[in-house]
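Why show two proteins at once? Because comparison is the fastest way to build intuition. When a single record is shown, students tend to memorize it. When two are placed side by side, the eye starts asking what differs. So, the first record is below.
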Amino acid sequence: DSTTAFITMFKKGLGQTPGQYLTGELLLPHN
């Protein structure tokens, strides 16, 4: 499933949960 691969990529690349990335970086950018 492409979504699972997408989440796995986030986990490996960021070292944090996809949820934290999605809510913290994509939906509510704070850069």
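Second record. Ask yourself what differs from the first in the token line.
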Amino acid sequence: VVVDVLDADGARLVIIPRKADKKPKVWDIHTLRMRNVGGAQAMPYEATLTNGVPPGEIFTSGRFGPWQPDAPGTTPLEGKFTFDRADLSVFKGIAGTLAARGTFGGALNRIDIHGETDTPDFVVNVGGHPFDLHAKYHTIVDGMNGDTRLERIDASFLNSSLVASGSVLDPPGHEHGRPVSLDVRMDHARIEDVMRMAVNTSQPPMVGGLTLTTKFFLPAEDRDVAERLRLDGRFALAGARFTNIDVQGKIDELSRRSRGEPERKDRVLSNFSGRFTLADGRLSLPDLTFGVPGATIRLAGGYALKPGTLDFHGTMLMDAKISETTTGFKSLLLKAVDPLFNRNGGGSAIPFTITGTRKDPSFALDYHRVFKRGNTP
């Protein structure tokens, strides 16, 4: 028996997973029209339905079948889709309204999807700054259990872009969604764009060119995205400057004094590089290097995102001696302490700490390391 046209408005699609410990996947279908149902050929169809998470409206059309009763996963399909008004605020810590479109083909247990998304008002709540996020992607989805391989994602926002690949898999015995695991690379990015995600200020604290590689892992937990996100990678900043005039002025002065030219009035750019990890809302920087003309600063420590607290210790390596960072009578007096800060190869090494908060940092000389024998490199 072949049914020429089948209308099944108000139907429900239920996919029983292969794994016994997993719940069925359920979609409420608003409208469904299929043709040539029951024949040995593919069935053309059109459907509108509501997605569960994130909630949004899907329209899809294409060809499905013929159905393979002995091996349902091998049933062929192809088509196109749109996904509109997807509400991302159901995920704790982010918000925005996503729209997607694309094409798909293959078999039910291996659906090859090419698509793109637009989220004009994407926001990470801890930063509080909406921005336009666009992405193109190629994924492979197992329609029998929802497991997804992210073959390639090309995303762009503001003046930055990234490339990522990874997976969204359903681990055994887990009932709170699927963890996301990615390898992310940013070769053309700006630090001010990234800071808009994580720093709730009217202007980003810093601007400059950014390159970055990181492991990205987002466990399926009932917590804010900023608290459960885990990162492990390396970064470099080139030609960076601070947007706060007072802070940048201190960096300029640091560079001049470190070169032994305290009277000079030039402006400088900074370079940063190092490794970083993020876990439980805390950013750790175990080997940060910060360079300006005349000085290199080596830092290690951490920053808590939500309280905004700082806990760093480091060493500033200067080309000049301490007494050469000023002039006149002060320079003469400082000659007495030059030996405390001398380093191998000339210049000075000054140990220090940074504590307090991002808005009110406290810089102090680390006296313990000053007087510790053999501390200066």
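One difference worth noting in the second protein: The mean pLDDT is 89.
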